[in-house]
Design goal:
The protein is mainly α. It folds into two domains: about 10-235, no CATH class; about 260-345, 2-Layer Sandwich (TolA/TonB C-terminal domain). About 45% of the residues lie in helices and about 10% in strands. The chain has 15 helices and five strands. It has helices at about 10-25, 35-45, 55-75, 90-95, 100-105, 110-115, 125-130, 140, 150-160, 170-180, 190-200, 205-210, 215-235, 265-270, 315-330; strands at about 165, 170, 285-295, 300-310, 335-345. A three-stranded antiparallel beta sheet has the order 4-3-5. A two-stranded antiparallel ribbon has the order 1-2. A hairpin with a 2-residue loop joins strand 3 (about 285-295) and strand 4 (about 300-310).
């Protein structure tokens, strides 16, 4: 069972040092920023899906070395703490993705430690994000994704699970412990609330397990492992339902921007986009489908698809959903983010 001790008080001198560094000049980087390095690690760690983790480990070690060099040569540089569009700092980005070595490298900076409890736009700190173990617990967050068609998206990401396991522990346990040691507040109640808010499609059984546990990481890992085992067993037995299931995973959006037009579009964040191959349909008419994709490590992991204009029968809607999921499996969208895309079909 995981136990967390109260974080030590930060020394006033650390804060004064951080404030002094923040007030200094911001120098241009001659190398990729920590955010860029973490984004690139998404594709590099996906290579671990073949069962080999040595190349992925080498890639993370190289990224961590570059972060350490930045801390040593330019302590307090803005790139070490600058948030992305979702309000996530490099420390948060590394924590949620399970990059323990990068977390250690970032924590060497006084400015990073001074803002260790900073919250992103959805109200989660780096420590809270480390408890989500997101690459290992996607099915707990999105139980609706456990279908044959939707596995086209998340199964390639799930296959790299071994990368995040170190003996009897996970990278996320190591990250959580490192953050607490560096002064992070281990607020378990807040972490549970943040996870439930980010995963509005979770089912009642998962919520009950989380409520009864004295931590978040263990019940999530057990819940997702059980769901994955059940999915793989049904897949091998050819017992998974196919059409006409159109219940999409529910994707939570962070607060602001309130204007949907300000949301990123697929063409803005994806470097590779496959063209949908329209199946033969026993249907005539016009319809517009709206897709919101949640991207993990550069790949769409889940997609919420809904009809926003026109009408479809259940079977045709399921066929079009499957077509869009097949197309999404060929996308490459570096980083971790949400994007929107609309598809209009006219069949005469």
């Amino acid at each position: 069972m995981l136990k967390h001790t109260p974080p030590p008080r930060r020394a006033i001198s650390t804060l004064l040092i951080a404030l002094g560094l923040a007030a200094g000049p911001t120098l241009a980087l001659a190398q990729p920023s920590p955010t860029q390095l973490i984004r690139e690690l998404g594709a590099q760690t996906r290579a671990a899906a073949d069962g080999r983790v040595d190349h992925a480990q080498a890639a993370e070690a190289a990224a961590a070395a570059q972060v350490r060099a930045l801390v040593e040569q330019n302590p307090g540089h803005a790139a070490l703490t600058d948030p992305d569009a979702s309000g996530a700092t490099p420390l948060m980005q590394a924590a949620v993705n399970g990059y323990a070595e990068v977390v250690d490298a970032l924590l060497a900076d006084a400015g990073v430690r001074a803002g260790i409890d900073r919250l992103d736009r959805q109200g989660a700190s780096a420590w809270m994000l480390s408890q989500f173990a997101r690459p290992l617990t996607l099915l707990s967050c999105h139980p609706q994704a456990a279908t044959r068609e939707r596995a086209l998206l998340w199964l390639p990401l799930q296959r790299r699970a071994a990368y995040f396991v170190h003996g009897q522990t996970t990278a996320f346990e190591r990250i959580g412990a490192a953050l607490v040691k560096a002064g992070a507040r281990a607020d378990m109640a807040a972490a549970k609330a943040a996870w439930l808010a980010r995963c509005p499609g979770h089912d009642a059984a998962t919520a009950a397990r989380i409520a009864q546990a004295d931590n978040l990481l263990v019940p999530l890992l057990r819940d997702s492992e059980s769901r994955l085992s059940a999915f793989l067993q049904a897949l091998r037995a050819n017992e998974l339902p196919t059409l006409p299931n159109t219940a999409s995973p529910i994707v939570a959006r962070p607060p602001k921007p309130a204007n949907p037009a300000a949301s990123p579009k697929a063409g803005m964040v994806c470097t590779k986009m496959a063209r949908p191959q329209v199946p033969t349909l026993n249907w005539r008419g016009e319809v517009t489908l709206h897709l919101t994709a949640e991207v993990h490590a550069g790949l769409p992991a889940v997609a919420q698809i809904r009809v926003i204009d026109g009408r479809l029968d259940a079977r045709t809607e399921a066929l079009l959903h499957t077509m869009l999921l097949q197309a999404l499996s060929g996308y490459d969208c570096p980083g971790d983010h949400l994007f929107d895309q609309e598809f209009r079909f006219k069949v005469q």
